[in-house]
Design a protein that fits this description.
Radius of gyration: 17 Å
Order of helices and strands: HHEHEEEEEEH
Distance between the termini: 39 Å
CATH superfamily: SspB-like
Number of domains: 1
Shape: globular
CATH architecture: Roll
Strand order of the largest sheet: 2-1-6-7
Structural class: alpha+beta
């Protein structure tokens, strides 16, 4: 099947988006299987109004646009599948289950190793579906969150000593 035009020939923005969200998925899968090791911990920022996000209404009211959670010492019952993850966290000593589609994530960071990913939603013109294979992610994008992809320099995520080696 031939592409419609030259701009549609290689959708690198979607390829990169899929690959990077795959990194998040794999990290969560490893924590489900083995738990967090050493000093690893995750900061995960996500859109609270994204379709499929499930959290108590008082948290949606308190964080109407974005919310950041930390998976470090006190989280329970982490589950991850092809397109979302769920976790139990305590808010004012009240356990709550949050379900977050991977598409809703805007930032994923593991400060223990100076690693972070920031996701940019795709534009409204990018309305074709992107589907992963069986164990990968489904990245259908909500129209109101689409925006053009941007080039990100990996140098900003490398440790200072690593820059000299490249």
């Amino acid at each position: 099947m031939a592409p419609k035009n030259r701009e549609d020939a290689f959708r690198y923005d979607k390829m990169v988006e899929r690959a990077l969200r795959g990194v998040v998925r794999q990290a969560l899968d490893e924590v489900v299987k083995d738990g967090l090791v050493d000093d690893h911990h995750f900061y995960i920022t996500f859109f609270t109004d994204h379709p499929g996000v499930k959290l108590p209404s008082y948290l949606k009211d308190r964080y109407p646009g974005e919310m950041t959670i930390v998976l470090q010492h006190q989280f329970y019952d982490l589950e991850a599948d092809a397109d979302k993850f769920s976790v139990m966290l305590s808010f004012n000593n009240v356990p709550e289950r949050l379900t977050i589609p991977l598409q809703a994530i805007t930032i994923f960071a593991d400060p223990s190793v100076n690693f972070a990913l920031q996701f940019q939603p795709l534009s409204e013109d990018d309305d074709e579906d992107v589907h992963f294979e069986a164990e990968e992610l489904d990245l259908d994008k909500d129209d109101k969150q689409k925006k053009k992809g941007e080039v990100v320099s990996l140098d900003s995520f490398r440790k200072k000593g690593d820059k000299d080696k490249t």
